[in-house]
Amino acid sequence: MLLPAPPLVLVFAGSDPTAGAGLQADLLTLGSLGCHGLSVVTALTVQDTAGVEQVMAVDADWVVDQARQLLEDMAVAAIKIGMLGSVENIAAVAEIVSDYPEVPLILDPVLASGRGDEFATEDDIAALHELIIPQSTIVTPNSIEARRLAQVDASDDIALADCAARLLAAGPEYVLITGTHENSPQVVNTLYGTAGVVREDRWERLPGAYHGSGCTLASAIAAMLANGLEIPEAVREAQEYTWQALRAAFRPGMGQSIPDRFFWARTVDDVDEAARGGARDDPATD
Ligand code: PXL
Q1: Nearest CA among 31, 12, 33 for reference residue 23
Q2: Ligand 1 centroid to 3 CA: how many Å?
Q3: Angle between helices 213-226 and 231-247 (to 10 degrees)
Q4: Is residue 45 in contact with ligand 1, taking CB distance under 6 Å?
Q5: Atom 10 in ligand 1: which residue has the minimum CA distance?
Q6: Residue in 11, 12, 15, 16 to alter for ligand 1 test, most ligand atoms within 8 A of Cβ
Q7: Residues 117-145: pLDDT tens digits?
Q8: Cβ count near 270 (within 10 Å)
Q9: pLDDT digit string (tens) for 151-193?
Q10: Cα dihedral sign for 122, 60, 50, 278?
């Protein structure tokens, strides 16, 4: 009996050699959720689990050629955007995705790592706002990114709902703001649509510093959409998956823990925290 082919999801992202975040994390997540990821490398990084040393954006011409060649050959069920690396790449990717308006577009606006490594200039933020956010089906900022994208000074006490409203005014269908970085006992993730809050999900705050949680969540949403779910269910299922991957995280080096996107492939005993090197007390995630 022939099995159905996995849905194809195209990812634009930067390479993270640790495979904790970035392109590698996206591909692991998509594979774990039954999709086949196609990948366009937008930037290279030099990093370990403790931090990012160097970032080099790939030339925009190379980004365009990688993407066009794939898209002329294969039909994709969703497109996911992570780190783009330069204003030129943002403009190039915006033009490419504008040729596929029927394909759901998931934007994870990667502005910095949770460890504070900066990935985006003010020009990058303006370009994302002007060129990619308006075309997105769903944008998935954490609360820090939401405030920066909404052009709100971090010291201003503006409600996240107002940030969402400002982002929605630029044209995306949905904005999911994650609450990992907020000072709340539980992590509260809120999905906003043009008519207001669509859903709010609360999760037990896990005691660790995780690398690549945002990439996992956004890729899982892309996978769920590619698998045919509607946005609210896709967002719910993707959070559940991400929480499980974080709970099963392992700490392979001296820095942050890496979510185990294939947690389901291991036995329950394997997921014992101590046996996996334990998680850390610092709640920062990226
Ligand atoms: O987690 C955000 C992220 C995305 N993409 C790349 C990264 C990181 C965080 O370090 O390195 C390539």
Answers
A1: 12
A2: 34
A3: 140
A4: yes
A5: 113
A6: 16
A7: 899 999 999 999 999 999 999 999 999 99
A8: 13
A9: 876 666 789 999 999 999 999 999 999 999 999 999 999 999 9
A10: positive
CA 175 to mean position of chain CA atoms = 13
* C-alpha distances out from residue 150 to 124, 178, 192, Å: 13, 15, 14
Q: Which atom of ligand 1 is nearest to the CA of 115?
A: 10
Q: Alpha-carbon distance 89 to 79, whole Å?
A: 15
pTM: 0.94
CA of 16 to the centre of ligand 1 (A): 6
Please give the distance, rounded to the nearest whole angstrom, from the Cα atom of residue 195 to the centre of ligand 1: 32
Maximum pairwise Cα distance, the chain: 59
* Residue 125: both structure tokens together: 């933020």
Q: Which CATH architecture best describes the domain 8-172+208-274?
A: 3-Layer(aba) Sandwich (3.40)
Edge to edge, the sheet with strand 196-204 lists 51-57, 36-48, 8-15, 78-81, 105-107, 138-139, 174-177, 186-193, 196-204
CA–CA dist 38, 85 (Å, integer): 18
CA of 4 to the centre of ligand 1 (A): 32
Whole-angstrom distance, CA of residue 36 vs CA of residue 4: 12
